[in-house]
Amino acid sequence: MENNDESSYEKLGCGMILLKRYISLSDQVEIVNICQQLGFHVNGFKECIPSGEKLGLQMMMLGSTWYPPSCYPDSIKPLTVPRKIISLVSSSIQDSQRHLNLKDKISSKCSNHCVVKFYTNTDGLALHEERDDKSWYRFRRKGRPVVSMFIGDSAEFFYSDARNLSKVDNILLESGDVLIFDNNSGDIFHGLHKIIPNSAPLPFLRKSMLKPGLLNLSFRRF
């Protein structure tokens, strides 16, 4: 795994760990190419508007254990999560543990399920909880983290320990960032305030040819 020498670590409130610029340029380009290739399959990217979403987006489900949204046929066979992406997610979990106290230690096991989203406009994502997912508590009992990777345009991310938009914290998520929710952070309310148009790094755009938008890979089912 290629390391990014410019990466940095930040521990946020509510049990979240942010790895800034964690994914190297070459790995970002490779992930885009992988997702584009998988997206051409019949069970690849679909136009989906899950509950709480306001952003126009395409969605793709990867992994052996999953609960497909209504835009997928019930009989569809999911695609396998590529080894390259699994390796990167596993490394991000291990690296985040270096910055945690023992009481905050999270599992080093990686999810075998990934939700891939490509946001195509700049509207916002409603404030929501991971535990809104019907299977959240089963994942939480296993003590495994949620890992979310961001590639492409930057996004304003907001979070709070209460469903109150007047009491939220904000951070800027940029291409190459990885956000990790530890096993105690299921009650966090969070969402995307907006995507910043034309904010992806030019060297990345030249190599990946990714169209305007934000590619998000979220590992959250186990």
From TrEMBL:
One of its GO terms (biological process) is oxidative RNA demethylation. GO terms for cellular component: cytoplasm. Its cofactor is Fe(2+). Residues 15-220 form the Alpha-ketoglutarate-dependent dioxygenase AlkB-like domain. It holds the Pfam family 2OG-FeII_Oxy_2. Keywords: Dioxygenase, Iron, Metal-binding, Oxidoreductase. Fe cation binds at residues 128, 190. Binds 1 Fe(2+) ion per subunit. GO terms for molecular function: broad specificity oxidative DNA demethylase activity; ferrous iron binding; oxidative RNA demethylase activity. The keyword Protein transport does not apply. Belongs to the alkB family. This is Alkylated DNA repair protein AlkB. It comes from Artemisia annua.
